[in-house]
Amino acid sequence: MITGGTSGLGKATVELLAKDGHDIWFSYLATEEFTKVAKEMMAQNEKVKAIPLNFCEQESVDDFCEQMKGWDIDVLVNCTYVGKPQTTYFHKIDPEEFTIAFQNNIIPTVKITQSAIEGMKKRKFGKIINIITEAVIGLPPMGYTLYAANKAYLMELSNVWNKEYTRYNITSNCILPAYMQTKFAEVDERILEQMVKEHPLKKLLTPEEVALAVKFFVDAPQHVNGVKMPVNAGTLLMV
Fold first, then answer.
1. CATH code of the domain in which 100 resides
2. 24: containing domain
3. Is the dihedral of CA 86, 29, 219, 129 positive or negative?
4. What is the number of other CB atoms lying within 10 angstroms of the CB of residue 47?
5. Looking at the DSSP assignment, which residues form a beta bridge with residue 130?
6. What pLDDT is stored for residue 202 in this prediction?
7. What are the two backbone dihedrals, phi and then psi, of residue 159, each rounded to the nearest 5 degrees?
8. What are the angstrom distances between the C-alpha of 65 and each of 80, 113, 170, 207, 210?
9. 239 in any annotated domain
10. Which residues of the chain are modeled with pLDDT < 70?
11. What DSSP line would sit under the chain, residue for residue?
């Protein structure tokens, strides 16, 4: 089960894992654009199933979690983030925006993960893979207040899942990608050129490359647990 499967990393992950023959469910926001993409993806592979989900609507999240009871989910990839990673300076953010960002991102992820874990516990097997961000290492970029804070919260939740569910043979690992050039995180072309120029590989990370990291955790033995994997060409390291 992959949340947010019609664009960026989510789509790249669906396409990569589908080639391995996995039965895949993925969620998508039911806009005209994403609905078209979801239908095309299902038409290309009969093992891929798309389910509409709006993280900003409690009823949609609750209905999605109810449907999950009928699925045998071995792997959950928490990929969706509502909003843009870069907004404005901390002192300019209305305190209410912190509540909204938390409600639209953490609460739906909590509900979906709880639903997945219920089935995993019964089967004594499961893998949770959380897409975090390199921004939680060291100092985040300016304007990343809400994004980095919510991702850090999710990473700490992953530690909780390690502690509480290892005895059920359930793992929880995190991937911390550097900036990827996607619609989700578009920046000015001049800034993009500077980022490429300063990058040690002279090229930015792609969703397809990060999808390979997701595949690693999907294929890894259950001994691989509690890992925080940066995908950033070694420019920042966790210590």
1. 3.40.50.720
2. 8-231
3. positive
4. 13
5. 78, 174
6. 87
7. -65, -40
8. 15, 9, 19, 27, 26
9. no
10. 185-188, 238-239
11. -BSS-SSHHHHHHHHHHHHTT--EEEEE--SHHHHHHHHHHHHH-TTEEEEE--TT-HHHHHHHHHHHTTS--SEEEE----S-S----GGGS-HHHHHHHHHHHHHHHHHHHHHHHHHHHHHT-EEEEEE--GGGSSSPPTT-HHHHHHHHHHHHHHHHHHHHHGGGTEEEEEEEE--B-SGGG---HHHHHHHHHHSTTSS-B-HHHHHHHHHHHHHS-TT--S-EEEESTTSS---
Report the C-alpha gap between 144 and 11 in whole angstroms.
Answer: 24
Q: Which residue has the tokens 């300076």?
A: 89
Contacting residues for 53 by C-beta, under 8 A, at least 6 apart: 3, 27, 28, 29, 60, 61, 64
pLDDT at 138: 84
Is residue 51 in a domain?
yes
**Number of structural domains, the chain?**
1
Q: Which of 85, 103, 74 is nearest to 2 (CA)?
A: 74
